Amino acid sequence: MAELKEYMHLKSGTDIRGVASEGAGESVELTDEKVYSITRAFVKWLLAKSGKQALTVSVGHDSRISAERIKKQVVDALVSGGVHVIDCSLCSTPAMFMTTVDLDCDGAVQITASHHPWHRNGLKFFTRDGGLDSCDIEEILVSAFNGEGIEARQPGTVENKNYLDMYCVRLRKMICDGVQAENYEKPLAGYKIAVDAGNGVGGFYAHGVLEPLGADVSGSRFLEPDGMFPNHIPNPEKAEAMDAISDAVISSGSDFGVIFDTDVDRAACVDETGKEINRNRLVALAAAVALEGNAGGTIVTDSVTSDGLKTFIEQELGGVHWRFKRGYKNVINEQIRLNGEGVNCPLAIETSGHAALRENYYLDDGAYLITKFIIKMAQLGKEGKKLDSLISALKEPAEAKEYRFKILQEDFRSCGNAVIAQLEKYSAENGFVIADDNREGIRVSIPECKGWFLLRLSVHDPIMPMNIESDVEGGVQAIADRLVPFFEKCGGLDISPIK
Fold it and tell me: Is the pTM of this model over 0.85?
């Protein structure tokens, strides 16, 4: 019989994830039984949340090989609970949220494990208010373990709908309206845009959005869904993925390149020279676009963004940079909180590529972000300007590195917090400059090394990541050398990475 910890192990922040396919040397965790029981528990939770007697829930999935098996269990559980199911088949995660808007669904279930390897999969739940929070996932998992659910007197029904086509119509209209080209229906005529979907879901963007608007997408790669991801992991944070889209742009002579993660809730891009617009550059470009019409607005980012980005947002764009915790749900929730308090906050974005615009239901949608960029590219093109001209003033570090220290004590959170407290004292004693605008871990500048470091607790794991950046060559090592004596004495960590 399954134990509660086997269910709780599937919790990954605000998602459910686990091993779903054999063949990678790991035992299957996301079994039929668990998927069915978790979905039943979601129905129970959603009925209580909505206060309704009858529900409509959409179901979609990314390209993973375990998708159909898992979808069968999800649909069967929903039907047993009397739910009317709209089966959207292959779909992006943001599009599945949009079914709660366009199709008036009470909830949505996306079967995805985002950028994780081919043998993993998961469940992501939405209501009209957005994705569920961590506490909601815990409640559902406990309920699933206890066998709680709804067995309706009358089983539900299933309707098939290709919602992704409707989603493409929405994005095409957005581009046509935004560009206002002489040929309204072909605003991208004359542009060559390469898309790399990494064999995930994102191939629709090339053939369903860009090509009908006149763009040449012949330089695109890996558009066909293939759940084994044979070419590269669809993850813009990986160098091999960014190298692939850069090569696609250069070899095809494209004007712009786009890369999505597996389920299209994240994206990055490259310019016509193949230079990456990713991480701090992506945040800077998104901020430049988001602050148009939002003068003095606040941009929420995660904690590891560079000093140059803060200067760019505040001095070049006239906005406010609000550093917050790592985790896309954390930055989005902070954005919602700030707007609720009357702060003009049009954008929350994590350096991983999750970007949520207030105008788009606070939804982290890679395709929507790229659509905003493409509109701006076409607008600037009328003036003979390039998209990257918007971020030409961004100063980037000469060096950057991340160290990851494993916490050796069982109570890893207490240990990590103690290390941070000790490091704060050490930094003050050594004349380092402790940032007063940091909201996660401890961020410290060392002026003579022309750089800074940030030490924090991982969102989920017994790990303490430390990011170091410097504006001079050799600066990262110089900062690391200043910290070695501290780590040698603090205890509780495996400090081999820095030694």
Answer: yes
